[in-house]
Specification:
seven-stranded mixed sheet; four-stranded mixed sheet; binds pyridoxal-5'-phosphate
Length: 447
C-alpha cells in the first residue's frame, strides 16, 4: 500500500477513533499495523519493524502464532461464551485455575479472572477491602503504592498509579490511595548509610505508621517496575517489604501484569527474592496478547474468608472466566513450557543487555543500561557520571525513539528512558539488530 493510502486511513481513523493516550498531534504520523510474524510487525506501507516491546509487553510468543489461533477457533466453535457468574463455570476456566495454582506462588490457589490488568488491580483492591471487613476490621481500606508505579487507568487503578501525568484531567482521584518512593538504584543517594534497599522498604513502614496500620488494607507493587522505566529493586527490598506487611497486618499484592509468565527469567518475578505475596495480579502474557484476559490469585486465607462470608461477594465482570480467553491462556502456558521459554528469557535478556553495554556502556550520555530477564531499559542523561538529566524540552527520549523507528525498531519510552521487552521467541540475530539500532539512534541524537 502507498503512503497516500496510509494517510487516508489515518484521516478516517482520526475522524472516528479515540485512542488510548489520545493525542492527535502524535497520531498524525502514526502507523496502521496490518501484519505480524514472529518478532516483526508490518505497517500499511509495507514497512517492517522489530516489535521491541512485544506489542504492549504482552505478545510473548510473537505474532502469527497458529497454535493460539487454533486454540481460540476450536473453543469458539465449541462454546464461544458462557457466564462465569456464581452457579456457572466452564472446563477451560477450571483447567486454567488448576494450572495457575500449580504455577504461581505456593500459598495462592484460587483465581478470579478479568479482561485485563486494570480490572485485575481493581479486583485486588476490592478483595483486600472485603477481606478485612469479613475479618472484623472494616477500617482497613487504604492502598499504599509507589511513585512511578503503573497499575492501569480505571479510576482506582489510576489512583494507585504513581506517574502523575495520568491524573490531572481525571481528578479527583479515589481517596485512600497513598504513594511512597520506590527503590530506584540509579537515583540512589551516593552514600545512603544503610542498605538502600532496606531504607526504601522502610518507607513502607513509615507510611503504614503515619496512616495508622488499622487503616491500611494492602500494599501493591510491581516486582520490576515496567512502564515507569524497567526499574529493578535491590535484592533486599522485597524480603523486607514482606516482613513489614506481616508485622502490620497489611496484605501484599504483587502486580505481575508485565512480569508474570516468564518475562524476568522466572515464571513469577518475586521468585527472584524468595518472597510470596498474598495476592497476584496478572494479564498480558497469559494469552500472549491474543485475547484480553487477566486475573487475580488470592491466598488460601483470603479464599477462606470469602468462602465463609455467608453472603455473596458482589464483584463481577461479564467476561470473567471467558472460555476462549482461558483456552488461549492454557495453550500459551503450554507453549512457554514446551519451548523452555522462561529459561530462554533469562539467557536472551543477558544477551541483549551485554549487546547494549558493549555498544553504549561508555557513552557519556548513557546513564544506565539495566534489566531483568528480557525486560531492559537504557536511561539517557546530560551527565552520566553525575547523573544529571536532560531538560524535558530537549525531548531526548522522543528523538531517539523517532530515530529508532526510522531504522526499523518500534518500542516505547518513558521520558528519557528507552524501554525494551521483545517477544520471548525473538532470535539472537534480531536482538543484535535491536542493540545496533538503539546504539545508532543514540549516536544520531547525542553524538
Ligand atoms: C504493571 C501493570 N499493571 C497493570 C496494567 C494495566 O493493564 P491493562 O492495560 O490491561 O488494564 C499494566 C499495563 O501496562 C501494567 O504494566
Amino acid at each position: 500500500m502507498t503512503a497516500s493510502h496510509t494517510l487516508d486511513m489515518l484521516a478516517r481513523d482520526q475522524a472516528h477513533l479515540l485512542h488510548p493516550l489520545h493525542d492527535p498531534a502524535a497520531h498524525r504520523s502514526g502507523h496502521v499495523w496490518v501484519h505480524g510474524e514472529g518478532a516483526m510487525l508490518v505497517d500499511a506501507q509495507g514497512r517492517e519493524y522489530i516489535d521491541g516491546l512485544a506489542g504492549l509487553w504482552n505478545v510473548v510468543l510473537g505474532h502469527g502464532c497458529r497454535e493460539l489461533a487454533d486454540a481460540a477457533r476450536d473453543q469458539m466453535a465449541t462454546l464461544g461464551f458462557a457466564s462465569g457468574y456464581c452457579g456457572s463455570s466452564n472446563p477451560r476456566a477450571i483447567e486454567l485455575a488448576e494450572r495457575l495454582a500449580a504455577l504461581t506462588y505456593p500459598g495462592i490457589n484460587r483465581f478470579f479472572f478479568t479482561s485485563g490488568g486494570a480490572e485485575a488491580n481493581e479486583t485486588a483492591f476490592k478483595v483486600a477491602r472485603s477481606y478485612w471487613k469479613l475479618r472484623g476490621r472494616p477500617d482497613k481500606t487504604k492502598v499504599i503504592s509507589r511513585q512511578l508505579a503503573y497499575h492501569g487507568t480505571t479510576m482506582a487503578a489510576m489512583s494507585a498509579t504513581g506517574i502523575g501525568a495520568y491524573w490531572p484531567l481525571f481528578e479527583p482521584r479515589v481517596p485512600g490511595f497513598v504513594h511512597i518512593p520506590p527503590p530506584y538504584p540509579y537515583r540512589a543517594p551516593a552514600a545512603p548509610g544503610k542498605s538502600y534497599g532496606l531504607a526504601m522498604a522502610d518507607e513502607l513502614e513509615r507510611a503504614i505508621l503515619r496512616e495508622g496500620a488499622d487503616t491500611v488494607a494492602m500494599f501493591v507493587a510491581e516486582p520490576v517496575m515496567g512502564v515507569g522505566g524497567v526499574i529493578v529493586p535491590p535484592d533486599d527490598y522485597f524480603p523486607r517489604v514482606r516482613e513489614i506487611c506481616d508485622a502490620h497486618d497489611v496484605l501484599f499484592a504483587v502486580d505481575e501484569v508485565i512480569t508474570g509468565f516468564g518475562r524476568t527469567g522466572k515464571w513469577f518475578a518475586l521468585e527472584h527474592w524468595g518472597v510470596a505475596p498474598d495476592m497476584i495480579q496478572f494479564a498480558k502474557a497469559i494469552t500472549s496478547g491474543y485475547f484480553p484476559l487477566g486475573g487475580v490469585g488470592v491466598s488460601d486465607g483470603i479464599a477462606r474468608a470469602l468462602d465463609e462470608a455467608g453472603s455473596a461477594w458482589m464483584h463481577a465482570y461479564t467476561y470473567s472466566a471467558h472460555p476462549v480467553g482461558c483456552a488461549v491462556a492454557l495453550r500459551t502456558i503450554q507453549i512457554i513450557e514446551e519451548r523452555n521459554l522462561v529459561a530462554e528469557t533469562s539467557r536472551k535478556g543477558a544477551y541483549l543487555l551485554d549487546g547494549l553495554r558493549a555498544r553504549l556502556g561508555t557513552h557519556p550520555h548513557v546513564g544506565e543500561i539495566r534489566g531483568k530477564g528480557l525486560m531492559c531499559a537504557v536511561e539517557f542523561a546530560r551527565d552520566a557520571v553525575a547523573r544529571i538529566d536532560f531538560a524535558p524540552e530537549e525531548r531526548v527520549g522522543a528523538r531517539i525513539h523517532a530515530e529508532a523507528q526510522a531504522r526499523g525498531l518500534f518500542s516505547r519510552i518513558r521520558g528519557d528512558v528507552y524501554l525494551l521487552a521483545p517477544p520471548f521467541i525473538t532470535p539472537d540475530s534480531v536482538l543484535d539488530r535491536v542493540a545496533d539500532i538503539v546504539a545508532d539512534s543514540t549516536r544520531a541524537v547525542l553524538g
